[in-house]
Amino acid sequence: MSLEQQMLTALVVDFPFEWNYIRSIVRVSLYVSLTAVALSTLLSLPVALLVGFKEFRGKTLLTSIINTGMGFPSVVVGLVVLFAVSNQGPLGSFDLVFTTEAMILSQIVLAAPVITGVSLAAVSSVEQNVRDAAYAMGGTNLDVALVTIKEARYGIATAVLAGFGRAISEVGSVLIVGGNIASSDGTSVTRTITTAIQLEARQGRFETAMILGAILVVLVLLVNAIVVRLGSGGGRYG
Amino acid sequence: MTIQRREFLSVLGGGVAVGLAGCTGADDSDGPEISGETLTLTTTTSTYDTGLLDELNAPFEDRYGVTVDAVAQGTGAALRTARDGDSDVVMVHARSLEDEFMEEGYGVNRRDLMFNDFVIVGESDDPADVEGEDDAAAAFEAIAEAEATFVSRGDESGTHTKELEIWDETGLTVEEFGEWYLDGGGGMGETLNTANLDGGYTLVDRGTFLDMRDEIDLELLVEGPVEGGSEMLMNPYGIVAVNPAVHDNVNYDLAMAYIGYITSLEGQEIIEEYRSNDEQLFFAEALSEDPNFRQYLPEGWERSSDD
């Protein structure tokens, strides 16, 4: 028996959860956080480029607001999103309370400022003469933006990873808007790894909570490895 | 006028029913209308964490082909979610808060469901000497007298509500308590852990205490009614449907089907037979050959409807 097999067997024997349970909470965690980060990135990059390139009144103020957003307490974001999606709120007719969609919404609010703020720093540090050169060679605004993104890609990858880290590790907002629901056969509906950890800890089962914590760390590690590889574009590191 | 409106509604309802019957009759390949729907149940951590709900919900889901989304919150939060129309049915354990919920028109068709009890636990050296006390209020008074550490849930949960009712009975004012009275500000498990670490007393539901007994050094000092102790420590659970006239989006049919199931012979048997670590945690209360009709009404309802 190989070492790997032995480790796997030890894990299976001592494992306090059903595989279906683990698989489904990992799936919900990844689905919610990856979707939220993807949408946040689409939202944040144009804002970062725009704010980074243009000089305008109130630029410092706007940058401060974005940076403040990085520190929003997740519980408060959860409450605000809950008010919005609640039956009584402006999005009430969509029936989003206790759904993964509501969780995605709240994680967008959490991740977008982080991605915008860190990307903005990366974009701002791209030398002015790189952009000037792109203009001089007859590039359109889009070309200049693409060149800037290419130059700032490590910073932007870091921004996306920071946003992902914020999203997948937060427990406050997904607990409030998602409700930490698992069906009676143990399949997660809106339960993520973090809310499952919270549930275990609430019941004094600290050891099983730690096992879930380890799974979360491994997942984040994997996603980081993949993004770094993509970010390097098979170039310097590849 | 009211009567006319009711008649109108009943005629309208009849018409709709006939119309629906026609629709469903024409296409008999479909399952029942209710199938595939989702019932949102907000409840307390004690029913959820003990695993009872999974046992109860699986047969219901099978029978109706529906999904039950159970959201475990404190009693206060569970009722708030229902007030906002974000859940269809509520299962909680604080009769006074349930009554308020009903009186304000948010809930209809409340049923007594089951009960267990609270116990008072503390360190074995028992500085306030409450062991064996059969009156919960007297035990609380002794703790206050001795200024022995007491850890409160402090979170508007059913347990916290019960604790405040007992302090009320002693005539003491919680706000005037000194440093010996701690606000745990967390779930039952966390509060027990705090009481364990600080060597204090606390009020806890028997189920959670039995569940965690092996991990803490606290001892059961004052018994509740399940073991013949203080009646005041009774912990009754009720189930209430959210009023569809207040929130027209709620799944009232399914909520009533759920209440019907959970108070049926089958549902009550599951509650009665449920064991955690070989201990019975909940005692079924919905069925009786001599039904208590008052259970449907908030306490003191007659008086308020007379004036």
Automatic annotation (TrEMBL), chain A:
Pfam families: BPD_transp_1. The keyword Transmembrane helix applies. Signal peptide: none annotated. It comes from Natronolimnohabitans innermongolicus JCM 12255. Keywords: Membrane, Transmembrane, Transmembrane helix, Transport. Residues 26-227 form the ABC transmembrane type-1 domain. It is a multi-pass membrane protein. The chain crosses the membrane at residues 28-53, 65-84, 104-123, 209-228. SUPFAM superfamilies: MetI-like (SSF161098). This is Binding-protein-dependent transport system inner membrane protein.
From TrEMBL, chain B:
InterPro entries: ABC-Tungstate_binding, PBP_domain. It comes from Natronolimnohabitans innermongolicus JCM 12255. This is Molybdate transport protein. It comes from the Archaea. Residues 35-264 form the PBP domain.
